[in-house]
Amino acid sequence: MFDVEVIRKDFPILSRHVHGVPLVYLDSANTSQKPQAVLDTLNDYYVNHNANVARAVHTLGSEATLLFEQARDKVAAFINAPRREEVVFTKNSSEALNLVAYSLSNASTTPGAERFRVGPGDNIVVTEMEHHSNLVPWQLLAQRTGAEFRYIPIDEQGRLVDSAIDERVDEHTKVLAFVHQSNALGTVNDVARLVGRAKAVGALTVIDASQSAPHRPLDVQALGADFVAFTGHKLYGPTGVGVLWGRYELLAAMPPFLGGGEMIETVDMSGTTFAAPPHRFEAGTPMIAEAIGLGAAIDYLTAIGMDNVQAHEAELTTYALQELMKVPDLKIIGPESPLDRGATISFTIKGIHPHDVSQLLDEFGIAVRAGHHCARPVCVRYGIAATTRASFGIYTTTAEIDALVAGVIKVQEMFG
Amino acid sequence: MSVTDSMYQQIILDHYKHPNNRGELSQFDAEVHHVNPTCGDEVTLRVRLADGEIAELGWVGEGCSISQASTSVMSDLVVGSSVSDALELQEKFLQLMQSQGHPDLSEEEIDALDDAIAFEGVSQYPARVKCALLGWMAMKSAVAEATASAESRSASTQAGE
């Protein structure tokens, strides 16, 4: 039984006051708050088990290594990965996506990695709704290799223009990288459609699942892509840890991204051979406590059930869209229908700058984000400087949505 | 939060709704265009100097209320004042904005800042300080440009004598 009031008690920060009023935290798409279980796990790790992983033979080293690798098992189970070795820990989603882009780049000069090479005559396709983290690495890869950089445009309702998919993704496409759920619009993309088209032309597929992993069951086998990236801090875990999932046979053939400790097999002054995945892509001492903390967040979510999380947030989204659309002069930027969209709602208010809206809402204790949300092309597409964005999580209540709507109306009165 | 603690003092909202000196001057000595990438605020500002004073100042712009209201307040304070007084006031406003909520200003300085003191609350929000400074920095550049062009005109006049 999903009880939001019980869940809220697990998040100590939600009892905070700001500016003398109770906090209404509606910025979970930016970063989520952390349950006590995650905080306790971080503390327990440092108090009782702290050591470096995969090298020390002493007891603490063994415990730390075990906890770290157990976290990998938890992630693998959470995303239904066929093999635990397909889970690579990274700093965040951006690093996970850059890992793939730079590995493809490094393939240009790696013998045996010809299948990953990208060059003139090839193209790389993203969508117009990408977060900069899944746009800039591909733009840079195109610039480094001479490949063409393309994008699938979005329509007025914040959906991909379907007819453009077959046109932009063609037999010269080497990579199709797209966001599962848009952080700026809330749109959930049709993964089967996009992956299907990419597969038909033999392109690699990369999914940015940063905004979907916290909100719906994520099954990498069902998604069918080659790579899936997400970050821990939006998934109720700590900052500093992210995940790249990749098909084992691809990871095993790809050249490394970063060189350093722990990613090697043997090092000689004449050359180095590399460890098998995932360690090949985890150079240096990893984010041990953070990965273990992410494991605790996954345990927490698994106990609640991601189906329940999705159902709760679908209710919130339906309610919030309905209530916000009653506010005069408020325009939703993104799908107005709760169908195939997530619990992230961007909007503009006629005559009031989003920074004023969010600053005033903050004075009422309501935390929302204003800006281009690191997806500037989306704002450019709609001819706006910025939006105000409210985003929900497992602990969000309809009362908080009421507070948001009341806050927006108050802002309008002040500016009226 | 009580209304008096708010960054959005009534004076700020009033100037945002009813800005002063908004419009383009047909005769001017300098025109500048300043932007604040944080909020995408923009202001285009023209000045006309006469006898060492800011005889006229007109501006157009768009953006957040802090940037637009601050430009309006600034324009009220500097039109009709000497260039040196205007630049001195700009320095004081900059000091106010950099005070992080703890300005070290004398009674006279507070009096001189007049309505601009309403922006004191903004200084506690580093992300918004640039909004409040936009019009003031534009005025400073425009006055410097106008002064420089006046000096070069007078130099060339003298050289021609």
Description of the structure:
The complex is a heterodimer of chains A (about 425) and B (about 160). With about 425 residues, chain A is α/β, with parallel strands linked by helices. Chain A has helices spanning about 5-10, 35-50, 60-80, 95-105, 135-145, 160-170, 190-200, 220-225, 250, 290-305, 305-325, 355-365, 375-380, 400-415; strands at about 15-20, 20, 25, 85-90, 125, 150, 175-180, 205-210, 225-230, 240-245, 265-270, 270-275, 330-335, 345-350, 365, 370, 385-390. In chain A, a hairpin with a 2-residue loop joins strand 1 (about 15-20) and strand 2 (about 20). In chain A, about 50% of the residues are buried. The mean pLDDT of chain A is about 95. Chain B is of the alpha+beta class. Chain B has helices at about 10-15, 65-80, 85-95, 105-115, 125-160; strands spanning about 30-35, 40-50, 55-60. In chain B, helix 1 crosses helix 2 (about 65-80) and helix 2 runs parallel beside helix 5. The longest helix of chain B is centred in the last third of the chain and has 35 residues, at about 125-160. The model of chain B has no long low-confidence stretch (mean pLDDT about 90).
User: According to CATH, what is the class of chain B?
Assistant: Alpha Beta
* CATH superfamily placement of the largest domain in chain A: Type I PLP-dependent aspartate aminotransferase-like (Major domain)
Mean pLDDT of chain B: 91
Assembly state of the chains shown: heterodimer
CATH architecture of chain B: Alpha-Beta Complex
Name the helicity range of chain B.
Answer: 40-55%
Low-confidence stretches of chain A: none
Q: What is the H/E string of chain B?
A: HEEEHHHH
Q: What would you call the shape of chain A? A: globular
Q: Got a strand count of chain A?
A: 17
CATH topology of the largest domain in chain A: Aspartate Aminotransferase, domain 2
Q: Indicate the radius of gyration of chain A in whole angstroms.
A: 22 Å
At CATH level 2, the architecture of the largest domain in chain A is: 3-Layer(aba) Sandwich
Biggest sheet features of chain B: 3 strands, antiparallel
Classify the secondary structure makeup of chain A into a structural class. Answer: alpha/beta
Largest sheet report of chain A: 7 strands, mixed
> What is the CA–CA distance across the termini of chain B?
66 Å
| Overall tally of structural domains of chain B | 1
